[in-house]
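Folds vary. Our protein:
___
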Amino acid sequence: MSSAYNVVLHHASLPMAEFRTRYQDQARYIGYCQACKNYDHVWSCPSLPFSVADYLAPYQQVEIIAARIDLAPATIAAADTPEKIRTTGYDIVITVKRQLEDLMLDLEPQLPGSRMLSSGGCNRCERCARADKQPCRFPDRMRYSLDSFGFDLSAIAHDLLGIDIEWARDRLPDHFTLVHALLLLKPVEYDWERFLQDTAAKFRN
């Protein structure tokens, strides 16, 4: 537990074919990506140098790991200007996102052939090298985002995890949500409940 926020982890599993049928709509979401400042400026985001269908083709199973970041009432109240709302929300989300990404990257060698997908664009660098037409500085750590592949994060969170994604507007929301995935070549036996317990403990200060 942090004085500013508390992280609650959620998990769901789905066959890849069903996951794509229910939640992927590239034609719809590419328009949103094109309107984003990250488009063609961040390596994790569109335009992508490969076919998404080909990238996903080897994988049979998807393990969804989501972090619901519950903000403390005092944190929400303290963000009483637009600038504080923006900076406080960003700092909390990026801190948790980087922690969760690193923990899920550590899973990949435990489940050979697996690949993590993140939530939103990569934030490992202050300025992505792609903006300067340079190769990624950390290709071993950078992972593509679920939304860049046209997946509907709001529907995934609502349907599979029972979480409604909230956004910062004129105040901080009660919670933020990060939806990550681990792609598996085939279904495997793994103690996901233990993973959630061990991972949740790492977010407690």
Remarks:
- The mean pLDDT is 92.
- Residues 5-202 form one domain.
- Strands lie at 5-15, 61-71, 115-117, 175-184.
- The first helix runs from residue 16 to 23.
